[in-house]
Amino acid sequence: MTPVLVLPGLYGSEDAHWQSAWLNDHPESRLVEQDNWDRPQLNVWLERLEASLEEAGEAYIVAHSLGCILAASLAGRPSASRVKGALLVAPCDLPATERLHSGQIAFGTMPTARLPFASLLVGSLNDHYMSLDRLTLFARLWGSELRNVGLAGHINVASGYGRWPGGYRLFETLKARIRHLDKIPPMKPALGRAVPSLL
């Protein structure tokens, strides 16, 4: 069974958080443990994630909040080839997050490159960490399928999200999409007269 790497955000995920329930309910899941959850540094967190991917060989990612930004930061790195797919839940917008948690986060700027793996981006109408307009923008930039779950805040304990069966169903939707994509044969190069570029 393909491992699932669970990526929490700032402060980690407390026992009542849906990610903690995920780890209990899915034996193939592993927490990517960080040494310092209170003062995230992108290079340090990336190093730990890449080590976990190397150990797993291939893995899915289930990320929340700042963990989504960590996952998106894999774009352009060789280790991204080890990611089979990613469920990205309530990503935080770094400018908003830095205003709310001044001086705590060293994550640079928002990643904007298209993700080289399938991804399902889940957000809400009233997340104070990411506006709907920005959520839609990053879904487009990352090439992610977008699911809006309504008035769900930051999709965390404060918004009433402990054990989250809906998240399990979304993950199965993502995996089904990946299985479908895996069955599509690569396109063969066209033969015959060259067509002039339209660019």
How does this structure look, described?
By secondary structure, this protein is an alpha/beta fold. It has one domain: Rossmann fold, CATH 3.40.50.1820. The chain has six helices and six strands; from the N terminus they run βαβαβαβαβαβα. It has a six-stranded parallel sheet with strand order 2-1-3-4-5-6, sandwiched between helices. The chain is globular and about 45 Å long.
Summed up, what is this model?
34% of the residues lie in helices and 15% in strands. The chain contains 6 helices and 6 strands. Strands 2-1-3-4-5-6 form a 6-stranded parallel sheet, with helices on both faces.
Order of helices and strands: EHEHEHEHEHEH
Strand order of the largest sheet: 2-1-3-4-5-6
Shape: globular
Q: What fraction, in percent, of the residue positions are helical? A: 25-40%
Quaternary organization: single chain
The number of distinct helices, counting runs of at least 4 residues, comes to 6
Please mark out the parts with pLDDT under 50 across 5 or more consecutive residues, or reply none: 189-199
The domain count comes to: 1
The major β-sheet equals: 6 strands, parallel
Q: What structural class do the secondary elements suggest?
A: alpha/beta
Rounded to an integer, what's the Rg over CA atoms? 17 Å
The CATH C-level name is Alpha Beta
N-to-C CA distance: 44 Å
CATH-assigned fold name: Rossmann fold
Instruction: Please indicate the percent range of residues in DSSP E strands (runs of 2 or more).
Output: 15-25%
